[in-house]
Amino acid sequence: MIRVIKQMSHRRVLLHLILLLAVGLPLLVEAKQDPTQSHLVGVKNGSIFLWTDAEGVVHMTDYPPQTEARRVYKKRYIEAVEVVYMEVEWDGTEEIAMNNPDNKTADSTEETGDTILESYEVEEPLDPLEDLNRRVFWLNDRLYFYLIKPIARGYSFVIPEDFRVAVRNLFHNLTTPVRMVNSLLQGKVDGAARELLRFLLNTTAGVAGLADPATEFGLKSEEEDFGQTLAVYGMREGPYLVLPVLGPSNLRDFFGLVVDTFIDPVNYISDLQTVLAIQSYRYLNNTSLRIGEYETLKASALDPYTALKDAYHQNRRKEVQR
Q: In a structure prediction context, what are the per-residue pLDDT tens digits for the chain, which is 322 residues long?
């Protein structure tokens, strides 16, 4: 794909992007998002709560999460079980009590002996391609467990974690232009300046970005991409998508991914084969540092497909609103 793009003139590439956005923008702006069920849920009266903590890990418990920044926006019944659909916002200061079935919280009220929380509706991701998405999700699941995970585990067994973290830092430093450009496009001048300072400090004191002294000095990086930029300018998410290997996305973020591909300097290092090899190694290295996260979500979820979709939707909403 990159070789084909490089063979095209910049004018033709720009024209194709304009046409792509011209076709997709009306769909995104006019799309109506109906409130639908979420499976990041809390279940009452002796059953379970399913919710995501501050680290993005899904928990299944018999009590609600220990934070006042939670919202219950819908209720329904699955057979005889009352299901309360819950959205949680963490600021990093809450403690998660993992053994408190008698938990009482500040925003609860007594009604027939049960803890009842305020209910309201929120926009949920559109998923008109659910059948196709579920097929791709199943394919990605099989690829992960039978190919990607075994290779990543073998790689992590041979390569020390400190080295793998250094490689992750290196790639994060190389992709600074993606975050800096999108920060500027979103009007976050301070964020763009912070990314520039991080790049200068990590490239010099951090030995080409292998270390991350900028974070130790309080210059924390925030992920910014063109999908978030489009959201800032009012573009809706559009239909939910599951991309092969890459996983959850949506139409807006897919457009953003295409644009970010042009900004990412890694894609200009060499020929197509070398770029694919570098990006594949980058994916493998990152995966080796996250083994267990997907397994936890899958084991905790009533429906892993829906849980992953809702987790992605909530995470993207937080990134856009940040």
A: 444 444 444 444 444 454 444 445 444 444 434 333 333 344 334 445 566 666 656 665 556 666 555 555 444 444 444 455 556 665 544 333 333 334 433 333 333 333 333 333 345 678 999 999 999 999 999 999 999 999 999 999 999 999 999 999 999 999 999 999 999 999 999 999 999 999 999 999 999 999 999 999 999 999 999 999 999 999 999 999 999 999 999 999 999 999 999 999 989 887 889 999 999 999 999 999 999 999 998 988 889 999 999 889 989 988 988 7
CA neighbours within 13 Å on the CB side: how many for 11? 0
CA quadruple 279, 280, 281, 286: dihedral sign: positive
Angular region, 56: left φ>0, alpha ψ -120 to 50, beta rest: left
What CA–CA distance (Å, rounded) separates 200 from 135? 44
Beta carbons within 10 angstroms of residue 105's beta carbon = 14
| CA angle (315 as vertex; 220, 118 as ends), nearest 5 | 120
Give the C-alpha separation, 253 to 215, whole Å.
27
Cβ atoms of 202 and 173 within 8 Å: the answer is yes
CB 35 within 8 A of CB 74: yes
The beta strands (E) that lie in 186-277 are given as 240-243, 247-250
Containing H/E element for 60? strand 58-61
pTM: 0.64
